[in-house]
Amino acid sequence: MQPEFLYSLKTIAYIIASATFIIGLKRMGNAKTARSGNLIAAAGMTLAIIASIFIHVNKTADGYETVETSGFIYTLIFAAIVIGTIIGWVTAKKVQMTKMPELVSMFNGMGGACAALIGLMEFHHNLDNTGALLAIILGLIIGSVSFSGSVIAFLKLNGTMNKPVRLPSYNIINTLVMIGVLAFGAHMVFSGTHSTTLLYLLFASALVYGILFTIPIGGADMPVVISLLNSFTGLAAAFGGFLYDNKVMLTGGILVGSAGTLLTLVMCKAMNRPLSNVIFGAFGGNAASGSGPDVKGSIKDLSVADAAVLLNYSKKVVIVPGYGLAVAQAQHIIHELEVLLEERGVEVKYAIHPVAGRMPGHMNVLLAESNVDYGKLVEMEDINPEFDQTDVVLVVGANDVVNPAAKTDPSSPIYGMPILEVENAKHIIVNKRSMNAGYAGIDNLLFYDPKTSMLFGDAKKVLTELVAELKTM
Questions:
Q1: Is 400 a catalytic residue?
Q2: Residue-number span of the structural domain to which 26 is assigned
């Protein structure tokens, strides 16, 4: 085939792939269409990969240039694709729902690592091109920060590093290190330095900054961290697109980077944290600096039988899922409870807080796994006005996202954070293993509300008993 035709074919493939990314991302914004959106974007990525591997034609000032690739290179490429596909497929199939945030962090970190490796490999091939060097160094720095930060996030999520580690004046230290890494990168681009040693020193410095950036962050802020690191990876990939003049890589990177940034802003708003605190590593500290008010009052225990009676004679029930539901792997039994109540004429909805769980959309994914109707998943802004017409709110494994201290106590570390206003319901049932505090480390005022009853125990065990009790009525 003529080089002109092949180049046009690759361009068309890239345009189609870019369109599928946009369509897929749009459909992922709705729970009902998210799965099909994911498949559409995956199909576009497959097309882009095929075009990149098999069509090696570049447009130059003198016309079109065909690049020959040896059979050995193709063998290495397809071997890597097969190995990566098998590892990714098996890992994703076996991962438990409670481990999904960790999987997302690690996959995101691998994207950052790829961007960093591109920078390490391509630096010495573009020494005479300042624009290319700038893209290489920025991709190297951002990708390295994303990789090491994602590794730390993974360790925090799986419990290896439960507590945030904060050096004295860590904000100042982190800021100075960030400025130093950027200045080092500018030196590598504009000074004409070609030292391999300095290149790897820059790589190591960026890795260190990624660790310093993430290690002070508490577990409550992990949804924000995941979103922000995801945007970093997208930005690093976009610089790779600039470097290789690869339109589909550029488009994909921009989409991931912008979507991650927007999601970060949404998460910050949901947690009442300014973006500046995220960037400079200050967030997560408020929880440690305050312990909330001295709570006075008593709690009421509730038996499974009494909870079943209360639910059975309700007209409207709202279920608030939290991370405890995922830990207990009780998503299937809670769906069975929902179906059982609806068969008896009870209206059932799920109230979804933006940062419930360990990553953005964690509860949506969890409930989708048990085939809960997407229409029953109601976002915080839409469900809050309905609580005062709700007979019973069943809180399962959620804590800080339903704590009224966020609205009533200015001294609370979560003050100002938008919450699910479950205290407005007629009756509140809270299922928890114990009275332990949530990620913010403070008591939940909701537990002492006269309308609240505590149903202690593992969520799966308690909900199973609750379903069995309802079936006898």
A1: yes
A2: 1-94
